[in-house]
Design a protein that fits this description.
Layout lengths: L10 H17 L5 H8 L3 H7 L3 H8 L1 H16 L3 H18 L1 H7 L7 H23 L10 H12 L5 H19 L27
Helix pairs in contact: 1-2, 1-4, 1-7, 5-6, 5-8, 6-7, 6-8, 6-9, 6-10
Length: 210
């Protein structure tokens, strides 16, 4: 049901965002903008007045989830137990990926016209590096762990998503459990050198052979 809590002038925008989130969650971000406009009960002109480009619509639709990711990282940095904070933020982000196909698709997309996303990603990159160092300082996170390993986790977690949310969550939890166990300090063999990956690399499509 449409919410009437927002001012009349803002209602079409709110309806569009709600329709976009619902459509993206079901079918990913390839849903045509015209479909979202119809779902929201507005015309195409109204959609383009509020969101001139598709990237801006996707970014606005998932700005709340991005804020939740950054908030989870900030909360983890404030945790008195760095290892608990490290595990907590990875659990929350992986869960968000598994529960919402649309968010996962947006999470792996580039938004060249949305500086807010770029700014938040840069802040997340720096916060993650601090979180890793804090967890290493407790002796619980293996010394050869690299922040780029989190990028590997998110790439892998995106790969286990299925049509069924229940199956996606079960697979994601299993993957994360394996990952966290491998992250703990051990006397086993050292890891290979880290891959040259940053969180920002999640948003770049792979190169294709010409």
């Amino acid at each position: 049901m449409r919410s009437l809590a927002v001012p009349i002038t803002e209602r079409p925008r709110a309806w569009l965002l709600q329709a976009a989130r619902e459509a993206y969650a079901l079918n990913g971000t390839d849903v045509p903008s015209s479909t979202i406009a119809r779902r929201a009960g507005v015309g195409a002109a109204t959609l383009y007045r509020h969101f001139p480009t598709r990237d801006l619509l996707i970014a606005a639709a998932f700005s709340e989830q991005l804020a939740q990711c950054v908030a989870a990282l900030d909360e983890a940095l404030e945790d008195d137990d760095p290892w608990h904070g490290f595990c907590s933020v990875l659990t929350k982000v992986c869960s968000m990926q598994a529960q919402d196909r649309g968010f996962s698709a947006a999470f792996f997309s580039q938004f060249p016209d949305t500086p807010g996303f770029r700014r938040e990603r840069a802040r997340a990159e720096a916060g993650l590096a601090r979180l890793v160092q804090r967890a290493k300082g407790t002796g619980q996170l293996r010394k050869d762990f690299d922040p780029s390993d989190v990028t590997l986790l998110l790439l892998a977690n995106n790969g286990v998503l299925q049509e069924s949310p229940e199956v996606s969550m079960a697979a994601s939890r299993r993957l994360l459990a394996h990952f966290l166990q491998s992250c703990r300090t051990t006397d086993g063999a050292p890891l290979p050198p880290p891959a040259p990956l940053r969180l920002d690399d999640l948003y770049k499509p792979p190169r294709r052979n010409e």
